[in-house]
Structure formats: structure tokens, C-alpha cells
Amino acid sequence: MLPYGRQSIDESDIEAVAAVLRGDWLTTGPAVDAFEKDIAAIAGLETPAVSVTSGTAALHTAYAGLGVGTGDEVITTPLTFFATATTAIWQGARIVFADVCEDTGNLDPVAVKDAMTPQTAVVAGVDFAGHPIDATGLAEVAHSGGALLLEDAAHSIAGSLDGKPVGSLADVTTFSFFPTKNLTTAEGGALVSSYDEILSRARDFKGIGYARDPAKLRSEPDGPWYYEVQSLGLNYRLPDVLAALGSNQLRRLALFKARRRAIHHRYNLGLRGIDSLRLPATRDGADPMWHLYPLRIVDGRRRELFEHLRSNGIGVQVNYLPVHRQPLFAELGWKQGQFPVAETYSAQEISLPMFPTLTDADVDRVIELVRDFVGA
What we know:
Family: Belongs to the DegT/DnrJ/EryC1 family.
InterPro entries: DegT/StrS_aminotransferase (IPR000653), PyrdxlP-dep_Trfase (IPR015424), PyrdxlP-dep_Trfase_major (IPR015421), PyrdxlP-dep_Trfase_small (IPR015422)
Cofactor: pyridoxal 5'-phosphate
Protein name: DegT/DnrJ/EryC1/StrS family aminotransferase
Number of domains: 2
Order of helices and strands: EHHEHEHEHEHEEEEEHEEHHEEEHEHHEH
Largest sheet: 7 strands, mixed
CATH topology of the largest domain: Aspartate Aminotransferase, domain 2
CATH architecture of the largest domain: 3-Layer(aba) Sandwich
Pfam family, one: DegT_DnrJ_EryC1
Structural class: alpha/beta
CATH superfamily of the largest domain: Type I PLP-dependent aspartate aminotransferase-like (Major domain)
Shape: globular
Number of strands: 17
Helix content: 25-40%
Distance between the termini: 24 Å
CATH class of the largest domain: Alpha Beta
């Protein structure tokens, strides 16, 4: 079965991990410090990233760093992995959904403006499939209402918009390093921001909320062993052994991006001009890091196409089921039909295989199977 996504590991990755295993540090140590600087550099920032154990942990830590709490509202998209919403709930927030743009599947600034209230603390956009959000439009809406902008960039590290790298577009940005993502640490994530206060709170939160820095202590220490628990946090610390893998993967990130772009282009050439298909859009100024190739079939036969491809050994996927239709959110009053653009997009979408080691022959086979199905 040809998977829709997979990790790209070479001997240099294995050696980078082995070097840590031969050393003195397995958990948070020098490899984590180096990785956090590397991630910040990719994001166009000077202050090191805050690395964590997963993309979900990155979102949770970002909401904590943003100070989200009980009584706050977080506006986000229904076309995402549900953790974009559920991690805000863990901080006590109420989730408010807004519809997406028909072309990119990204959060629509006009819909967000209509959903804003005095309780809105954060607008959380998602770079669906790797295409950057309309950061300018969303930031204008969020900031005018006294809220901050979070960019869930789980799909889009190394992307850019109008020449600015993803990571420098929003008040805080989160990344995921799951094996199918654009680089991997096996499991892992990170968040970046240009705001020291957000990063400080985030670092405290992912470090279980305790302080050892003498400058932060509230009482006189009675010895070098002294520490204080000053806030409520969790252990989301990324270990050195995984950070070393991440830093080594970053050395090939430009190659990964170039190959993903080439695969995306090959799909476009092979599937263009077919009335029943809608190909992924790229807006002016956007330079996506394509994590997915989100093909849409608009004649109502998504399940049939899915099963046709799967039966022929192509491990396609659907990204995503609308979050507001999940039982957790249906119980809170969200209903089918409230976000027609996102619901239609989700009902039509099928993710074709997309990863750097995918061969041209594999891509052509997928194209041929799709064209055969639609009769093109």
C-alpha cells in the first residue's frame, strides 16, 4: 500500500540519534537548545523556540503562553485536526467556530469578524495542507478586537507569505513534527513568538510550572537544591534524542520542500482540466510547504474515489472531518449546516500521497487511477 504520507529518514538521521545515545544527555540538554535555535531561525526569529512533545502539546502550551483562561473565547476553523480546538478547552476557553475560504480551506477573516465578541481572546487559524493563512487579514480582525492571532502551522514549516516566513506572521505559531509532517522528531512540536512574555509563560508551562532561576524565585533559597512551583504546568519537555533527529532533518528541509513542490506541480499537470475535480489553490504571495495534496471531487463521489484508490493500493486519506460535528461539540450546540463552506470542502476532499521519497512513477500511477475513475 502506497501511504499518503511517511517519514524520510536517512543514515545521517540515525547517526545523529545514535550520537546522543552515546552521550550523557537523553532528555532536555544541549541538543534541545540547538534545535530550539534552529527552529527559530527557520521562522525568521532570534529568540529560541519552545520545543514540546507533540503538535498538540504545542497548541496547549501556546494557549497557556497566550494567557487563555476561563471566560475567554477562541475563534477557530472547523476544518482542522480537533486538537486546535480541544487544547483551548483544557485552558477553560469556549470555542467559537467560523467558516473557511472556499479556495484554500483556511479561516476566512470575514467570517471571523462576524464571530468576534468582547470575550474573544485568540483567533486560531490553521495552514490547511501547508498553504499559509491570510495572516494580514486575520491579524487585522483579531487585533482590532483586542485579541491575538495564533497560527497553527503543523502543516507548513518553511512556508512563507509575501516573503515573510511562517513563524513570523502571527503573534504565536505552533509546529508539529509527527512522522508524516514536513520534518520529524518522531513525536514532537514547538512554538515560536516574537513576544518574550508569551515564550516565558509557555516555557514555564511545558516545564511543569516550577522555577529554579534565582532571578525568578520569590523566597530566599536555603540551598542550591531549592525550587518553587509558581504556576500550573505539564511535563511537555522534548528529549535530546528526538531534538537531535529534528536538527538533522532541518538540514534537508529545503530539499523536502522542493520535492513536495515538484510532486504538487506534477499532480496539477496530470489532473488539470477535469470538470469533476478541484485542484488546490495557491494565492498570490504564498509559497506553501505542501504537506498534503487536497484534491476535491465535486460530483458527490468522494467515497467511491476513496475506495477505488484504496483497492488499487493507494493509501489516500481524508483531512478532516468537521470539528463542530464531533459529539463533543455537538453537545455544546454546534450543528450541521452552520459552516457550509467548510462542510462542503470536507465532503469533497481526498488527500493524495505526498512525501519527499514519492517517485514520479508513483505520482503518475495515482494520476492515472484518478483519471480512469472520472473517465478523463
